[in-house]
Design brief:
about 300 residues; disordered C terminus
């Protein structure tokens, strides 16, 4: 009787494993850094960019008492001591959940993002092209601090909660960023650049974590769909409004500077900030969505 030789079993590629999965965070980091450089060139080194940016900052005369109370409280509660405490607790939570790599990554993210912002703010020159001889404020330290804390919470908490925490964190960061413009502390470009700095540093952290776990096998998990839909719709609407508003303000600055009000410019800057917050948090929630649940070992790899 003739026997059929068994066919060799071909190795099956681990689910969710690909070169793109490993290097995509690095790609996000490079794009974010390039966007920061582009914003600096447009809104700091050109006269039109400075004029549009400063007009948006000076137009934040909001008279609604409840709105101003929210903005004022957002600034009051965004200080280094409180943010440092939140970061320490987040890192401790990562250690308790046996996620030492994410705890270390959270610490690196906060330090790298805030240090980068301070180095850029002190090292970059701001020529006086708009008649406001103020020192450089690009990027915003307050927005960097708020965004880095929100990113850390998304990173260290269990995967099931990351979408919800990301949505809440996006709301908090948006309020803080708009509040810095309303208080005449920062221009809209300062806030947007700070968000991009935090995203770049966070993406590098995720890249390092994925390199460390390259031998592990795990399925990919998509982030919370409802959260992504809410952020995507918010980002799309505010991006459209901010883009049209920016074009209008830029054209009037070239022709008739008094054609639109300062409040219109402020609302345009606020819309652009919200759009950038939504976009950065979509990227961050997506980058962190497929990490293994806290405390669960990765087969064939490390915890």
């Amino acid at each position: 009787m003739t026997t059929v030789a068994p066919q060799p079993v071909r190795p099956v590629a681990p689910p969710g494993r690909s070169l793109w999965h490993t290097v995509s965070p690095l790609f996000v980091a490079v794009l974010s850094a390039a966007a920061v450089a582009a914003m600096y060139h447009v809104f700091v080194q050109t006269s039109l960019g400075q004029a549009v940016d400063t007009t948006a900052m000076l137009g934040g005369d909001v008279s609604h008492p409840r709105v101003t109370d929210v903005l004022d409280r957002a600034l009051q509660y965004t200080h280094l001591t409180l943010l440092a405490l939140v970061c320490v607790l987040a890192a401790a939570f990562g250690v308790i959940q046996r996620r030492l790599d994410l705890a270390i990554g959270a610490f690196v993210l906060v330090v790298a993002a805030n240090l980068t912002t301070q180095l850029l703010k002190s090292g970059l020159a701001r020529p006086d092209l708009d008649g406001n001889p103020l020192p450089n404020s690009f990027p915003s330290g307050h927005v960097t601090a708020a965004a880095s804390v929100a990113f850390v919470l998304v990173l260290v908490f269990p995967r099931a909660l990351r979408g919800t925490i990301g949505l809440v964190g996006a709301g908090y960061v948006a309020v803080v960023a708009i509040a810095t413009v309303w208080a005449d502390w920062h221009r809209p470009s300062d806030a947007v650049a700070a968000l991009l700095v935090v995203l770049a540093c966070g993406a590098l952290v995720v890249w390092a974590v994925r390199l460390r776990r390259a031998a592990g096998v795990r399925p990919l998990h998509l982030p919370n769909k409802l959260v992504m839909v809410v952020l995507a719709i918010t980002g799309a609407v505010t991006a459209a409004a901010g883009g049209l508003g920016l074009l209008t303000v830029a054209l009037t600055e070239r022709g008739s500077p008094d054609l639109v009000s300062g409040q219109f410019a402020f609302l345009t800057g606020a819309a652009g900030i919200v759009a950038c917050v939504a976009g950065t948090f979509i990227m961050w929630v997506r980058l962190t969505a497929d990490e293994p649940p806290a405390g669960r070992p990765v087969p064939g790899g490390t915890k």
